[in-house]
Amino acid sequence: MAELMNCKKCGRVFQYTGITKICQRCRKKDDESFKIVREYVYDNPGATLVEISEETGVEEDIILRYIRQGKLEIISENSSLLIECERCGKGIKTGRFCDVCIEEMRRGLSPDIKKRETAKEKNENKHRMFTADRKKR
Fold first, then answer.
1. Where are the annotated segments for Disordered (predicted)?
2. H-type helices in the chain, by residue range?
3. How many Å from the N-terminal Cα to the C-terminal Cα in the chain?
4. Burial of 104 (0-12, 13-18, 19+ CB in 10 A)
5. Which residues pair with 46 in a beta bridge?
6. Which residues contact 34 (CB under 8 A, 6 or more apart)?
7. Are 52 and 40 in contact (CB under 8 A)?
8. How far apart are alpha carbons 56 and 26 in whole angstroms?
9. 98-106 contacts: CB < 8 A, separation 24 or more?
């Protein structure tokens, strides 16, 4: 059953489905803003963040959120609209992390995942009942 909650943007009460914490009206407005920004960026690949914001009427932090979410990618190599990897600071075109950091984090998590799975299996075996073979005398 879905619960009621207040929209993080406008404060209206809406039925939360577990997907997003903003109401349908705000989500629709955000989608429209994204389309405007996307079209502007593709038509003006060298535009700065300030230019994009001024020309589209969309706030800079919202544009940066689109880039961080991977919804928008900087396509020009010469663009001043690069963002930084949250881990190493390297300039990236979209998302939160550069390819190198993503690979390092993936490799770093793999052994931990295997350790957790092995520990879980051992823990499950502790609670099982086993029978011992008795030697006949």
1. 112-137
2. 24-43, 49-56, 60-68, 99-126
3. 63
4. middle
5. none
6. 66, 71, 72
7. yes
8. 17
9. none
88-101 per-residue burial string, b: 16 or more CB within 10 A, e: under 16: eeeebbbbbbbeeb
pLDDT on residue 33: 96
Supply 9's token pair. 């943007």
Torsion sign across C-alpha atoms 23, 81, 47, 49: positive
* Tokens 């300030």, residue located: 50
From the CB of residue 64, how many other CB atoms can be counted at a distance below 10 Å?
A: 15
Q: List, in order, residues 6 or more apart from 57 with CB less than 8 Å away.
A: 36
Average pLDDT by stretches of 10, the chain with 137 residues? 86 89 93 95 86 95 91 68 84 88 85 62 57 53
Q: What pLDDT does residue 132 have?
A: 52
